[in-house]
Amino acid sequence: MNIEKQKVLIVDDIDSNILLLKKALKNLDVEIVEANSGKVALQLVEKFKFDLILLDIQMPEMDGFELLVALKDKYPDS
Asked: Among residues 8, 72, 19, 12, which one has the least CA distance to residue 38?
């Protein structure tokens, strides 16, 4: 039986925050993908299926709330 790792997207514009989250998740069997902006996160979500998205609320260009609305609009049944 082939069970894939859970895929987690971390979205934050501050590298130290991403590092902190990666350390918190290091003992879990997850694949971590990073995005430094909401726009990059949207591009990644179009290419990959994520089991969990951890996002920062305050980011330039597209904050976490705007990203959440964009994701809900694009994937209303998710």
From this structure: 12
Question: Which residues, 6+ apart, have CB-to-CB distance to 42 below 8 Å?
Answer: 62, 67, 70, 71, 74
Which tokens go with 9? Answer: 């997207």
The three-class DSSP label of residue 69 is: helix
H-assigned helices in the chain: 15-25, 38-47, 64-74
Question: The pTM is what?
Answer: 0.88
Helix (H, G, I), strand (E, B) or coil at 19: helix
Which amino acid does the sequence have at 49?
Answer: K
Query: Alpha-carbon distance 60 to 12, whole Å?
Result: 10
Say if CB 26 and CB 19 are below 8 A apart: no
Half-sphere exposure of 29 (CA within 13 A, CB side): 3
Q: Using one digit for the tens of pLDDT, what is the confidence trace for 42-70? A: 999 999 999 999 999 999 888 899 999 99
